[in-house]
Amino acid sequence: MDVVARLASQSAVVIFSKSTCCMSHAIKRLFYEQGVSPAIVEIDQDMYGKDIEWALARLGCSPPVPAVFVGGKFVGTASTVMTLHLDGTLKRLLKEAGALWL
């Protein structure tokens, strides 16, 4: 869990992803289209990927990817992030974390 916390705190937005996951791709696109440049951790290409996946599952991520952290705090997986986007909360969180200026 320490590696997830450390990675999540290194950037305003961190997305834990798998390079072959279509939902991970959709969430990354959502952030890019908002003008945000998230840090991406592709756990299927990381030497500690299995440990990271296990830690994400312990945080309640089901499925474990995509898992989104904003301002070092766990925001949620794809369905939660999409809900936050649709109700306008995501933009506020991004501004508060310094990931979005406008």
UniProtKB/TrEMBL annotation:
SUPFAM superfamilies: Thioredoxin-like
InterPro entries: GlrX-like_pln_2, Glutaredoxin, Thioredoxin-like_sf
Pfam family, one: Glutaredoxin
Subcellular location: Cytoplasm
Keyword Cytoplasm belongs to the record: yes
UniProt keyword annotations, A-Z: Cytoplasm, Redox-active center
Domain Glutaredoxin: 13-75
GO cellular component annotations of the record: cytoplasm
Database matches in PANTHER family: GLUTAREDOXIN
Family: Belongs to the glutaredoxin family. CC-type subfamily.
Protein name: Glutaredoxin domain-containing protein
